Amino acid sequence: MRVPLASSGLRDSDIDAAIRVLRSGNLTMGKEVGNFESKMAQYLGMKHFVMVNSGSSANLLMIEALMRPTVGKAKLSPGDCVLVPAIAWPTTIWPLIQLGLNPIFIDVDPSTLALDLKAAQEFINQSGIPIRGIFPIHPLGRAIPPSLLGEFITKNDLVLINDVCESLGSWIEGKHAGNVGEASSFSFYFSHHITTMEGGGIATNDDLMVDDLKSMRSHGWSRDRSDAKFWQMNKTSNDSKFLFVSTGYNVRPMEIQAAIGSLQIDEIDTFIDKRRRIAERVSESISSTRLSVIGEDTFSNDRNSHSWMLIPILVSGENASAYKELVLAELAKFEVETRPILTGNFLAQPAIQRITRHAVDPSKFSIANLMTQNAFMVGAHHDLSESQIEHLCFSLKSASQLYSGT
Ligand SMILES: Cc1ncc(COP(=O)(O)O)c(C=O)c1O
After folding, report:
1. What is the pTM assigned to this prediction?
2. Residues 6+ apart with CB under 8 A from 27
3. Which atom of ligand 1 lies at the shortest distance from residue 57's CA?
4. What would the mean pLDDT of 112-132 be, rounded to a whole number?
5. 382 belongs to the catalytic site
6. What does the alpha-carbon distance between residue 318 and residue 286 come to, in Å, rounded to a whole number?
7. Partner of 271 at 20 to 30 A CA spacing, among 102, 111, 320, 404?
């Protein structure tokens, strides 16, 4: 029996909604997107949510809006240094480089896989390099506490933007992940907590930023802005539909995506509860072996803080890396899909090494290396059937006991 890392997440009701929208003839961004955005803002406890076509586009727009606001001063400027985690997703890092910023890589915390704020503080204290911003990833369903982030940015006078693409549904200290700072990005790619097939968005409490995000999503035009009339009256006599006020892209979502998203977000608590139960059972199945679930501390403490996008598993003990390979081979025989922790140590990827200005020696990041060598992930998707979950746990138990003599 196959246990995939992810499944489509689409239910009959989602497909019916997509067909209804297709039949309506209203295909490009419109009322459905507006409706989904209101629901998302309410769920996250944020003032605004702007839907786009992917989490990657959300990251790009957040950075661009901070660098090229139409009103007020830019919060980030070309050349500024921004702290990022050494285990990252490529499209967390690329927008910084593409827009002329300097990503400064910091190792991750082994117990959370998030950017290690203590290591970041040491870097700031010792390097003397002026740092302007921090762009942490809330990893794999685990929220970074807002109190820690708030204290860190206040102490170091930093601009905070959050990549929450992996952690929809994670709450800590009574707040959704990414609830401090300028803005946060989300992804609704099909393996994530809710799906719009492809899709993403940005949450922010900033009334000015949201207008820029809306312009930048649609070629830079003024149409969807709250201050569209102001631009029309004061700035030009152009046709108001074709008035361009900022830089931009076309990263709009489609109505069918939003119609599906609106149904999915209504069910998010059920999806996440199932994911938590899968993670707990996986953790039980490998207890007292050399394998352990990273994040299992949240089962007894702050259970709600984790929404489990996937389940990261660390192999410990002697020759852990070789032992991991044996476990992976065994899991493959059981048809259990596995994968590395995101990209592993991002600095070891050819793409970043080829950009010599930003290439850093990957061996400097000992925890990122450890996770690349000794850790792997299995699926936690809420669509897994009871027999798939049983098979996943049985396979992990068998694989973890095979060579260890336990
Ligand atoms: C941390 C992080 N950021 C950004 C993204 C990009 O999201 P998308 O696939 O929707 O472009 C992902 C993808 O999973 C991710 O893990």
Report:
1. 0.97
2. 21, 254, 255, 256
3. 11
4. 97
5. no
6. 17
7. 111
